[in-house]
Amino acid sequence: MLTADQERLDCFMIGLKRRNPSEPEFAQAVYEVALDVIPFIRLNPIYEENRVLERLTEPDRVLIFRVNWEDDKGNMRANRGYRVQQSNAIGPYKGGIRFHRDVQLDTLKFLAFEQTFKNSLTGLPMGGAKGGADFNPKGKSEREVMRFCQRFMSVLARHIGPNTDVPAGDIGVGAREVSYMFGQYKHMVNEFTGVLTGKGLSFGGSLIRTEATGYGTVYMLENMLRYHAQGLDGKVALVSGSGNVAQYSVEKLTELGAKVVTMSDSSGTIYDPDGINEDKLSYIKELKNIRRGRIAEYAEHYKVEFHEKSRPWIIPCDLAVPCATQNEISGKEAKNMIKNGCIAVAEGANMPTVQDGVDAYLAAGIFYAPSKAANAGGVAVSGLEMTQNSMRMSWSRDELDRRLHAIMQEIHDKCVQYGKENGKVNYRKGANIAGFIRVADALVSCGNI
Ligand code: NDP
Ligand code: 2IT
After folding, report:
1. Residues 267 and 162 in one domain
2. β-pair type (424-425, 420-421)
3. Domain-located, residue 247
């Protein structure tokens, strides 16, 4: 990086941290984008003149609200709800809702910021947003989850709409929660519209939305390997997490010939050296989606190792597909994976690798698909659900899978177009610049609002 760019970056980050104290994840996400975008802005002064980076790092608005709800014992409970509406430069605000004990503004600001670039990469007309609550779904009854979703939506409803802001799922929020929220919204506004995506199939949900993030991540990995004359067949893969994104990443990896040897949850990692085949994955789906149990049960059931409180990254592999949460791969773990022979990382989770780890991937020259490119298939199919809802029709599974494939291929190609340097592809740079251009051009064209 040129000295002038480094100075601009340092100065920009000092200002950002001063304006957003105690928000390390937001600063981390912004830094990773600014690293690539600041040199690009120097070459394209129109973006500097319009202060595009400063505008993009300030959310359009942040909503914070109290959510009161009643538990099964009749106690009144209070949680904090959020919606960060980051940018509607290229379409209505769009992004998931996270319910997790640790949710705080910092996390949602990083996610909304990332979402803006990710949505831009899909080529579809969607702005960026993220929301959630510090509600812990673990151990809650079905009725408690329903009541929480209803109370959450009773506040959020006045701030969203099919042309304003279209939420979806994320950690702790799947089709069940989206559907409860949709029911509450419909009840309040007396309108049946595509205000949320990831709904149940019989009332406007899209086929393949459930699978899309995991499948899309593997399509991105496949594209990246193919571009470098490699393939998935016979490769050993580590997957973290055992929720929505992990399950469908494992499904597609296995279908395409890779052997997945790990999955995890917040209590630890299972290591199955024979591979998690279709039958074993069905067991995981039943365990996680129906019984809502812990991953350790898999180890007991199949008599394999369970590494308590441990993450997968110490196990030798060819491929790593993190699908749990942010900052789940440390610099040390990244370096260890590279040392053990890992050749490619595709991020199903959002920002799962710390900055040091990303630096290590790039320095080692392994193939690295950053989250905003790799996991964009989920929101892309959400975008297709919005289109189907507007047209009051639905596409077939094959049609949607074909479109998902095409979108992931386009994202890959944009990363190559903007990320080529010294005969290699820096996918982080490619994704950042390609995502930036579309939003930045819209901001410039629409004036200083
Ligand atoms: P789920 O709630 O379905 O699954 C989350 C998984 O990650 C669970 O196995 C969970 O374990 C584990 N996990 C969550 N938090 C932690 C933590 N702090 N430490 C260790 N493990 C943790 O969520 P999704 O699969 O939907 O989301 C996973 C990731 O993918 C997130 O980063 C999300 O932002 C991202 N993503 C999701 C998309 C979607 O369409 N759903 C789209 C794009 C990205 P446990 O059950 O023990 O908490
Ligand atoms: O991080 C993400 O892209 C999501 N959680 C999906 C968002 C969406 O609107 O489908």
Report:
1. no
2. antiparallel
3. yes
* CA–CA separation, 3 and 5 (whole Å): 5
90 touches 126 (CB < 8 A):
yes
Ligand 1 centre to CA of 364 (Å) is: 28
Burial of 74 (0-12, 13-18, 19+ CB in 10 A): exposed
SS3 of residue 359 by DSSP:
helix
The tokens of 129 are what?
Answer: 């947003």
CATH number, domain of 324, equals 3.40.50.720
What is the Cα–Cα distance from 41 to 444, expressed in whole angstroms? 13
Q: How far is CA 389 from the centre of its chain?
A: 23
Q: Provide the whole-model pTM.
A: 0.98
Is 94 a residue of the active site?
A: no
Say whether pLDDT at 449 is over 80.
no
Q: What percent of the chain has pLDDT over 90?
A: 99
What's the CA-to-centroid distance between 415 and ligand 1, angstroms? 25
Question: What domain range includes position 240?
Answer: 212-365
Do residues 277 and 260 make contact, with C-beta atoms less than 8 angstroms apart? Answer: no
**Structure tokens of 79?**
């949680």
Tokens of 219: 């399509």
